[in-house]
Every structure is written in structure tokens, then in C-alpha cells.
Amino acid sequence: MTIEVGILGATGMVGQQFIALFENHPWFRVAWLGASERSAGKSYRDACAWRLPVPLRADIAEMQVNAAEPSDAPRLVFSGLDSSVAGEIEGAFAKAGHVVVSNSRNYRMEADVPLLIPEVNGDHLALLKTQASARGWKGCIVTNPNCVVVVYAMALAPLRQFGLKTSIITTLQAISGAGYPGVPSWDILGNVVPFIGGGEEEKIETETNKILGALKHGTVENHPVTISAAVTRVPVHNGHTGSISVTFTERPDAEAIVAAWNSFRGKPQDLGLPSAPPQPIVYLTEPNRPQPALDASRDGGMTVTVGRLRRCPVLDYKFVALGHNTIRGAAGAAILNAELMHREGLL
Ligand SMILES: NC(=O)c1ccc[n+]([C@@H]2O[C@H](COP(=O)([O-])OP(=O)(O)OC[C@H]3O[C@@H](n4cnc5c(N)ncnc54)[C@H](OP(=O)(O)O)[C@@H]3O)[C@@H](O)[C@H]2O)c1
After folding, report:
1. In terms of pTM, does the model score above 0.90?
2. How much is the pLDDT for 57?
3. 239 in ligand 1 pocket by Cβ < 6 Å?
């Protein structure tokens, strides 16, 4: 069985990662590419500055890029659109009957839109029951979190059982998170930039609570953890790192926290979804890990690694978490969302 899919924003960093990840996908086949008017009508090879360390497939290179309009796109569409245009375009696709699996921030915090990490809150797909009828859409929109929120929320999810109360995170985010061409080389080489535009800190302080929240009476009740985020851009290609502290209502011992991470599994593992990593969170015992260069690509970039768990003199514990921002934090996340939707009969 093959399901034809379209990619909105196919020429961007996330769009390229979609194309690479679909190459050997057992269910999904790329049949349609969409981007801006600048790219429409060109071959993908001419429209895109391919930046991945794998060759661009010849059949994709020759495909024509379309304008980002529903018309002849397949029913299932993945979106890596720039957020300045994603709201309008994704809404138009959903209205026209497409299932839009989006990376953009525009719909993430809407009460009737699932903000999904399948291992953590796969049950939030139930929000789709009312979405289409309430909005007058024939299709729907499902979103994945901001790229650093995926890593953070996955690291925190197994800790909810200990009464997660407060958390502070300082991020060290890769340049691929800024799209292409992204941050000018002059600004990032040999430097750290203590600011990321687009409300990055606010996204961390709000999206995480929705993801960790519980579905009650058809709506998501946000998790009460209070979060303080500070973000930095660092000269790393791929992999967002977070230095994280947490407090609990009842402080567990360190062994219980490590066991909670290592034993954490969810629907993707239970269902054997094609993009599911065998162990979504892996605790590394080496004192100098995780590191983006060594650990971001573990299990195809779908595993979050954590390490350096130790007592914090201010809060209860501190640790480091890392994930691949354009795979687990973007294209791979959206593909896993669609795989779960397929298995649950929602495509
Ligand atoms: N990079 C990450 O790690 C990451 C992670 C999670 C989420 N995201 C989100 O995913 C989205 C894409 O990010 P990115 O890093 O891939 O950005 P990017 O490299 O700048 O790519 C943006 C894409 O949007 C298209 N686009 C721009 N203006 C358009 C318009 N007016 N109409 C139609 N298409 C238009 C571009 O097409 P042209 O080439 O034709 O201009 C390009 O394909 C963003 O919303 C971002 O916040 C990114």
C-alpha cells in the first residue's frame, strides 16, 4: 500500500529533510511539491539549494515545484512553510479537504488543534473529532511542536509521575533551526547569539504545557509546570541542546529518574510505526554526553538523548537533553504524526 503525499515548503530546510526521510518510507511517496511563487514552475533542482549530506534523488530533482495552492495536491500534505504564510495557506488546504501535518507555529496553540508528540500525547488526536465541523473544513490540521520543545517535552514527560513543579531551560540551538540561508556566517561563526526571533522563549513556556497536558472532556488541560526559558543560537549544524533544571513535589532519587527515561515508551513503539525509534529517550552515562556531533543522529535522528543528571543546589536536579532539530524536531516528527494517524484510521 502506498499513500501519495505533498510537501508544502518543499524547498526549505525542513522540506529537504522531508524529501530525504521519504526516500525509503514504506507507506508514503512524494507526489507533489509546493513552495513560493519564486519557485513555482521550476524544477526542484533549480528551485532548491540542496543542503543535506545525501544526494538529491534524480526523480525528485526533475519534479516541478507548484504554487502553494490546493488544486491537484494529494489529500495528505506535510508542511514546512515559513510561518509568515503558513497560517493562510495551511488553512486553505484544510478547508479544501486536505489533511495538513504541519511544522509551523501558526495553529499549534489553537484549542482544537493537536500539538503532538506521539509517544507523549498521542491521545490528543481526539481533538480532531470537532475541528473540521467547528471550522467548516473538509480536512484538518495536526501540528508538531517547535524544534526545541520536542526535545524538552520528551525529556520532561516521564518525570510527570514525580510531580513536576518548575523547570528552567537554557538552550543551545543549531543554525539549521533558522532555515536556509539562516543566520549570516559573520554573526554565528565563533559566536553565541542570546536571542532567537519569532517568540522562541514564549513557545517553550507555553507549548510544553499543552503537550504535557491531559485530555479531559474533549479538551486539553495544560500541565501546571512553570517554565523559564532562555535561548541561544550556537555554531552547530544540527542538534538542539538544552541545559535543564527541575523541581518536584516529592524529590525522587536519581536512579528512579534515569529508569523513567530509559523505560519510557509510547504508541509509536507499541504499534511498531516505521519512524519510531526503539527507545525514544536514552540516558547516556558518559560524563561528557550528549553532544550534537556525536548523538543528534542516533536512530535516524529520532531519539532524544539525556545525560549529566545531578543534584542542583537551587532546584532539585539538573541535566542535559539533546535532539535532532530538523528530524525529531521537524520533518521526522511530522512523519511520525502521520504514521500514527494512518494507524488510527484518521487519514
Ligand atoms: N528548521 C527547523 O529546525 C525547524 C524545526 C521545527 C519547525 N520549523 C518550522 O518549519 C517551517 C519551515 O522552516 P525551515 O527552517 O524549513 O524554513 P526555510 O528553510 O526558510 O523554508 C521556508 C519554506 O517556505 C516557503 N515559502 C516562503 N514564502 C512562501 C510563500 N509566500 N508562499 C509559499 N511558500 C513560501 C519557501 O519556499 P521558497 O524556497 O520558494 O521561498 C520554503 O520552501 C517554519 O515555520 C519553521 O518555524 C523549522
Report:
1. yes
2. 95
3. no
